[in-house]
Design a protein that fits this description.
Helices cover about 40% and strands about 25% of the residues. The chain is of the alpha+beta class. The strands form 2 sheets. Strands 1, 2, 3, 4, 5, 6, 7 and 12 form an 8-stranded mixed sheet that branches. It has a 4-stranded antiparallel sheet with strand order 9-10-8-11.
Amino acid sequence: MKIRARAPIRLDFGGGWTDVPPFSEKEGGAVLNATINRYTYATLIPRKDEHIRIISADFDTFLEVHDFKQLEYDGNLDLIKAGIKVLGIKQGMDLYVRCDAPPGSGTGSSSSISVALIGLLNCLQKEKLSPHEIAKLGRVLELQELHIAGGKQDYYASALGGINYIEFEDPAVSNSRLNIRPDVISEMEKHMVLCYTGKSRLSGNIISTVMKAYERGEKKTTQALFALKRIAHEMKSALLTGDLKWFASLLDENWQNQKKLDASTSSAQIDSLFKTAYKNGAIGGKALGAGGGGCLIFYCEDNREHDVRKALQKKGVQIIDFNFEFQGLFTWAQPE
């Protein structure tokens, strides 16, 4: 019997960075994000022996050990190893993992891998975890087990699915799935353009720099973080009322505050892509995740999204078609 799991990636529209300690611990954070129909897929095939084989399609990497005791963190598929270790899985298995999003895209792909993996491995256990528990454990894998800096929002987005407003009062996390009208969702899907710049980034480096500036009390950084928190709250109102021009302007305001946090958030290439998008009909946009590369999202004037797509493609970026998804983590069994 094969066991499979899939977990979606997300678009972070507003409030990113405020879900990262110590800001989220001291001030409380708020984000607005949405999952899309691009996924991490994971398959587990139990073995009769204790061997563990891990195949990652994204990194074209293969690993095999004789038993779980030989799993060591060495930079090779450490996230998957951490899942096996933290959940205490001791049986043999073949694991296959792939993600629709390229690594470093800013779409929470590593968190969707964590969520899919935990959901998959949890199928082998008697006590089943809730989506919130899976999200919390995903955070443990990256931060506590592998010491990778970052926020919390990605795990909750991937585990829960949908368009969500999430508040962080560490350690508490509260989630509100937004009941947005179907016509508003369709308008968003029609008018938005998602593109991949072809350059990955290491968000942990940027995040650590920003949070150190916050801890030093740097005014520019602190004001930007509070602005991002406010923007997430206003985005919630914009979407619930169906005011998408307001939403687009908030995307732009979010991006302006992102850039105030660290110079590496943007680049000459990203600035050029924004200029091209706005020249051809975009009215709002931002870099996803920590920035510095990866994916960009734009909201366009009515019936101008095709112009933005064409102009960006001429600049050499990859357009990613998408729809929003509302299922979150899903696991199932498949006969051999």
